[in-house]
Amino acid sequence: DAKTTQPPSMDCAEGRAANLPCNHSTISGNEYVYWYRQIHSQGPQYIIHGLKNNETNEMASLIITEDRKSSTLILPHATLRDTAVYYCIVRAYNAGNNRKLIWGLGTSLAVNP
Amino acid sequence: TAGITQAPTSQILAAGRSMTLRCTQDMRHNAMYWYRQDLGLGLRLIHYSNTAGTTGKGEVPDGYSVSRANTDDFPLTLASAVPSQTSVYFCASSDSEGTQYFGPGTRLLVL
Q: A66-109: per-residue pLDDT in tens?
């Protein structure tokens, strides 16, 4: 699975949109972009995933560039409860070789009042 | 739905002792995983199981063993604990699309 690069930390004002970038320049054609987050001391939580098209669910929106080399997770109206570490991962859809799933250090997002 | 449950929540263990971390899921997922998370290193895969009756080694398998007798349970055993196994351990399962769901974690301190 391809490697991802994320900024180590970001700040966002409560109520504003949080835009978290991820670079995955070596992504392959069959690899999806997944986003998870980990609130302090809890297990990671799935947020959203996509292949080519932009995706939206009740938690967030995922914008993937046309060349698929980068993506942005958007939390449209960040709240204090969105303070967490956000992980961007690329992996083949339903890949059986789970040994290659690489979790980086993610982006620590601080939402400030 | 409970999802993934892990036990114990936390444990202090003397070096050299053995311990089994329990993990149970109620989502009927075929694939399950054990990760450890250490400060500054992120999540690292210890062992995984693609389906009941099969297991495989992850990135850091040494000192750990797993079994998968049925779909729901995936215990992780430390045969002889060492201080370097002090960590937070997360169990996860994944659905047919590969999305992973995590348990609340077990915090282990080996002295």
A: 999 999 999 999 999 999 999 999 886 555 555 456 788 899 99
Q: Is the peptide bond before B8 cis (omega within 30 degrees of 0)?
A: yes
Which pLDDT value is given to residue A51?
92
Residue A91 contacts B where some CB pair is shorter than 8 Å: yes
Distance CA A12, CA A15 (A): 9
Convert the pLDDT of each residue in B71-95 to its tens digit: 999 999 999 999 999 999 999 999 8
Residues of chain A with C-beta less than 8 angstroms from the C-beta of B48: 98-99
| Window 63-82 of B, Cβ < 8 Å to A | none
* N- to C-terminal Cα separation, chain B: 36
- Which DSSP symbol is given to B97? T
Pairwise CB contact (< 8 Å): A98 & B33? yes
pLDDT at residue A104 in the model: 84
- CA distances to A72, B53, B59, B64, B77 from B81, rounded to whole Å, are 41, 25, 18, 9, 9
- What DSSP designation does B80 have? S
Contact indicator for B104, B7 with CB cutoff of 8 Å = no
Facing residues of A11 across strands?
Answer: A110
Closest CA to A23 of A2, A49, A5, A48: A5
